[in-house]
Design brief:
Layout: H1 2-11, H2 17-32, E1 43-44, E2 47-50, E3 53-56, H3 75-89, E4 95-100, H4 106-117, E5 121-125, H5 132-136, E6 137-142, E7 145-150, H6 152-159, E8 162-166, H7 173-185, E9 187-189, E10 195-197, E11 206-208, E12 214-220
Parallel strand pairs: 4-12, 5-8, 8-12, 10-11
Antiparallel strand pairs: 1-2, 2-3, 6-7, 9-10
Helix pairs in contact: 1-2
Length: about 220
């Protein structure tokens, strides 16, 4: 009641009474619909509670690869965490696409999800100039020499980590085709002659894809 009278008083200087009443009512209704802040999921006895679902917490071999972010969730974020946990642990979905407008917090939600579950993360940001070779190797300089190391994608597949692929909507078609092949066929040729493969073989040229390997692909909606 106090807020309504205060708003009416401020608006009355510029508008007629009927306009003031309608405008103040709309503002107050909008405020009542604003998302409420919620606390992060709580851990207990090796589990973390995401809404209605209880998920097991991992035991990372490299804790430095587990994201660490400040997070204060709103209703939509908490619902998304709940759905992510169900997708991963109930439906056993290996690769998940998160599609949404730019700036809604996709990265923050995913990082907090992995942090809560203590899962190791590898990260790659795609763009319109990303090449197929950049998916598999990363150039580094050591002792004045240019070397090529395994990319975050290869490391994640080999060691069973979660690969976060950001800005996937900007990737060229040939890059998307290679990623689609990895997801559907479970194999990817590497430039040094090795091959990522889901099926185990005795060949030294084959790098087995770890059963815990997952991809969380983030993309903006068309037009953003």
């Amino acid at each position: 009641k106090f807020e309504r009278e205060k708003l009416k008083g401020q608006l009355a200087k510029h508008f007629q009474d009927n306009v003031v009443e309608e405008a103040s009512s709309r503002v107050l209704r909008r405020k009542s619909k604003e998302p409420k802040l919620q606390e992060a999921p709580e851990r207990s006895e090796g589990y973390v509670q995401f809404g209605t679902f209880r998920a097991p917490v991992g035991k990372p071999q490299h804790p430095e690869l587990v994201p660490s972010v400040d997070f204060v969730g709103i209703d939509r974020h908490m619902d998304l965490l709940d759905e992510l946990a169900k997708a991963v642990f109930l439906r056993d979905e290996r690769h998940i696409l998160l599609l949404g407008p730019q700036g809604v917090g996709k990265n923050r939600v995913v990082d907090h999800f992995l942090q809560s579950l203590a899962l190791e993360r590898e990260y790659m940001q795609l763009h319109r100039d990303t090449t197929v070779s950049q998916l598999t190797v990363t150039p580094v300089v050591a002792d004045g020499k240019l070397l090529h190391e395994d990319s975050p994608l290869v490391r994640a597949a080999q060691h069973g980590r979660v690969l976060v692929l950001d800005e996937a909507d900007k990737a060229p078609l040939e890059v998307v085709v290679v990623l689609k092949s990895l997801i559907e066929d479970g194999q990817l040729a590497l430039p040094d002659g090795r091959r990522l493969a889901r099926a185990a073989t005795e060949s030294e040229a084959t790098v087995a894809i770890h059963p815990d390997f997952r991809m969380l692909v983030l993309a903006n909606r068309p037009g953003f």
